[in-house]
Predict the structure.
Amino acid sequence: MVLLFIMTITGCANSSAGNDRSVTYRSNRGGKYNGYDFEFWADNRGFANGRMTLTGNGSFYCEWLRPYKILFRMGKKYNETKTHSQIGTFALEYGISEFDTEGTAFISVYGWTVNPLAEFFIVENWGSNNDNGSRGTHKGTVTVGGDVYDVYENIRTNIQSIKGVRTFPQYWSIRQTRRSEGTVPVSEHFAAWEEIGFNMDGKMYEVSFCVEAYGGESKDASGSANIYKNKLTVNGVEINARK
């Protein structure tokens, strides 16, 4: 696999333009684009070679080469004042036209709550290594939107988070069969987790569509993904209409 990391910027990260404009970053950056919040974050302990191109209306393209850990995500960030149920019903429609990786990488609906702090993942697709062994304790299965997911809880102890070094749980739903397009009824996962006993009472910080990869210097820890559709709705209204 040959990856080209060329920084090309056309337009502005705070642009409200449509698909005719794009912006590319190859280092840690966050902001707003077309009414969506985006973040490109790479752990600086690794090579952290990556590229994220924002292509409009929630869509994006990304590449990575031997990162320690790298995340590309686009969705909505909140002001930590309301719980998910107070905000409304979340759903995310997505389409993936390219996902080329032989290392450990996955694509998910991703986010955080605070007070209490929790990180969550709804995994829809992955590379050759699903790496479920690192997800923590298997809590069973749930059926959401007609699809079966394995549920895990993983307690992360004294590691970096959105609130500094903390101890917090990760909540996981992982599809038993991966797919490249569909609609995720996100709030139904929240409800299923609460029935299992996961604490989703925290104030909402973020709900995004995310590509994550890791692996360090391994030659297989490289890849690319093209997210051609990423439509996040709350109560049936796309978030970019809420600008």
In short: The chain has one domain: 23-242. The longest strand covers residues 147-161. The two ends are 39 Å apart (CA to CA).
